């Protein structure tokens, strides 16, 4: 049975290779984004035995506060652009000038229009990894930055 273009667009999963990353107002090209997750810490409560005759305490696990978000962004090193974009941002931490930014990752359709967006709120850099160096390899030099944020929100478009 043949599917129409509208049916395919509505029912098929969206490929993950077409996305945009925005750090504040700037769009930055990254080759990989990972760690976009929402989770909650848990807490354990123990209650005294009740009159039901069940021995021992009753143990309950309940959700607590939202866990911090850790996102990793990786990109190829492009001469001056890499130093300006990521290094200067994380270097501000040394002088106690942490600039928190909202990071938006937008999954796009075949036309480049955003379908779903994830926003990491109040993110700041915690780690900047240099690429591995190997004289026997001709791989592209890829740097990675780890960010910590308050929360992740998802929206359509």
Describe this structure in words.
The chain is mainly beta and 157 residues long. The chain has a single domain (15-34, 66-156), classed as Roll (Pnp Oxidase, Chain A). It has helices at 5-11, 79-91; strands at residues 19-23, 26-28, 32-34, 40-47, 58-66, 69-76, 101-108, 114-129, 142-149, 151-156. The strands form two sheets. Strands 1, 2, 3, 6, 7, 8, 9 and 10 form an eight-stranded antiparallel β-sheet that branches. Strands 4-5 form a two-stranded antiparallel ribbon. A hairpin with a 2-residue loop joins strand 1 (19-23) and strand 2. It is extended and about 70 Å long. The chain starts with a helix and ends with a strand.
Brief characterization of the structure:
It contains two helices and ten strands. The protein has 157 residues and is mainly beta. The two termini are 30 Å apart.
Write the layout of secondary structure elements.
Blueprint: H1 5-11, E1 19-23, E2 26-28, E3 32-34, E4 40-47, E5 58-66, E6 69-76, H2 79-91, E7 101-108, E8 114-129, E9 142-149, E10 151-156
Antiparallel strand pairs: 1-2, 1-7, 3-6, 4-5, 6-9, 7-8, 8-9, 8-10
Beta strands, count: 10
Number of domains: 1
Q: Could you say which overall geometry the principal axes of the C-alpha atoms support? A: extended
Q: What would you give as the CATH superfamily?
A: Hcp1-like
Range of strand content: over 45%
Which secondary-structure class do the elements indicate? mainly beta
Q: What is the C-level CATH assignment? A: Mainly Beta
Distance between the termini: 30 Å
User: What is the level-2 CATH architecture name?
Assistant: Roll
Helix content: 10-25%
């Amino acid at each position: 049975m043949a599917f129409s273009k509208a049916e395919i667009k509505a029912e098929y999963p969206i490929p993950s290779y077409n996305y945009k990353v925005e750090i504040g107002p700037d769009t930055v090209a990254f080759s990989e984004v990972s760690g976009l997750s929402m989770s909650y810490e848990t807490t354990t409560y123990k209650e005294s035995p009740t009159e039901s005759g069940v021995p021992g305490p009753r143990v309950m696990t309940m959700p607590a506060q939202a866990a911090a978000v850790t996102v990793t962004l990786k990109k190829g090193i492009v001469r001056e652009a890499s130093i300006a974009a990521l290094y200067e941002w994380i270097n501000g931490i040394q002088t106690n000038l942490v600039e928190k930014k909202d990071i938006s990752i937008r999954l796009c359709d075949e036309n480049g229009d955003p379908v779903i967006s994830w926003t990491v709120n109040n993110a700041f850099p915690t780690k900047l990894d240099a690429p591995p160096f190997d004289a026997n390899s001709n791989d592209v030099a890829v740097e990675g930055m780890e960010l910590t944020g308050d929360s992740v929100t998802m929206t359509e478009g």
